[in-house]
Structure formats: structure tokens, C-alpha cells
Design a protein that fits this description.
This protein is about 50% helix and about 15% strand. The protein is of the alpha/beta class. The longest helix is centred in the middle third of the chain and has 19 residues.
Length: about 270
Amino acid sequence: MSATFHETTHFYSSVENGIATLHLKGAERKNPLTFESYAELRDWFQALKYSSGIKVVVFASHGGNFCSGGDVYDIIAPLTKMDMKELLAFTRMTGDLVKAIISCGKPLIAAVDGVCVGAGAILAMASDMRLASERAKTAFLFTRVGLAGCDMGACAMLPRLIGQGRAAELLYTGRTMSAEEGLSWGFYNRLVSAEELSGEALRLAEKIAAGPGFGHMMTKTMLGQEWSMSLEQAIEAEAQAQAICMQSADFERAFKAFVAKEIPVFKGD
């Protein structure tokens, strides 16, 4: 496994039993993103596609908060002095992070506590599953700083999670979505206490990590690709994907375990 999965500079990372846990630095500022952490996260998730040692990723909170978005002084202030070419390079980089998350081939669980706003809300949105504490506060703040709500794929992804009208309200107003709203609207999978959040996310990660890794990769791939397919195209694509999975050793292991009345032990191949 590449050292990049163990030695990160601008965010914390650890890998244990096939589960990678990440969280941002800067708890005293509610874990903001910087130019450097954006770029390193993008590179990390791009490399993750080629790692067989990591099966699931947990994007954790730190110090009672998930992420406060782009740092006011490290990002927003410099952006006001950039020309169009520089600005476009930055916005493309942030979009590349989301694309890397979507295409990394590994399930991603966001464990959201406290503040989850701006680009932090995008990171949660781009995750496959989202657990939250009851004190989670989520907001897409872009219009609050004079920008559009269409940032890093928000106008494409958020309506698919919570519906067009609700997404429009959050993106136009920049208001905070409470944890209870997030749960009832389908943004969050479930709410747990702040004390139980890390443990619950880890238990979910362990359950997924015990499953068929190749099958999970294919599931994530199809969840992303089928957005732009017709129903007929999606059915055919899934037929091909499933036929590929039926050639995997894990499929045969599951059959043999069923016959022997045992629990299958998947190895991801």
C-alpha cells in the first residue's frame, strides 16, 4: 500500500483493518479546508482507486465539528485577488475532489458532528452514506458570500438526495438545515448521539468492509454512472456489471458457504 495512505500532511489519516479514517485539521477553527488540504484530499482519493488494502473510508468529525468550509483567510481572501484563469483553476480543483470521491471505488461514510457548512457540506453530500449527531448543522453557504449555490456539483447532487424544492431552498437562502430536517429529508441515514457517532460509523464501516469488495466497487460505480442513463441503459449496464461480478471468487465463496451453512468470508476478489 502506498505511503500516501499513512502519511498525509494537511489532514489526519489512519488505516486499520481495511478501514481508512480521515478528519481535517484545525479544530479551533472548526476544521476549515485550505488550498493544500483540497489538493491533498483530491490526490488521496484519486490514488485510493488503486489501493486493494482499503475497503471503506470514514470521513470523521474532529473536536465536535465536521468542517467549516473554505478558510476565510487562507482561501477566500486570496480568491478576491485572483484573475479568472486562477479562479477557474481553483474551482476545477475543488470539483476534481468531488469527482475523485465519486470514482474512488470505495464506500465513503461521513460522520457529521456540529458544523458542516460550505465545502464541508459538499464533502458530506458526496459521501455514500451520512451519519450525524443531533447537533449537526448543515448549510450550503455560497450565496451568503455573494456566490452561486452551484458549487462542486451541489445543483446536480443535492436535489437527488432531498428533492428539488428543498435543495433550491437551501441553495438560495444558505440557511442551516437541522439534523432532524436532514434525517426526515433523506440527507442523513440516521442520527445518533455525539458520543456514539464515531463508534456507530466504525461499526457500519466494519459491516461493509466484511462484504464483497469487488461487488461494492461495482455498486459505487453504477450508482454514479446511472445518473445519466435511461432506464433501459441502466438495466443493460447492471446486467453486464452483475455478470462480471458472477465471475468473482467471492461469488463462489458465498455459494460454498451457503451449501455448508456457514457465513461467507469475502476477500474482495
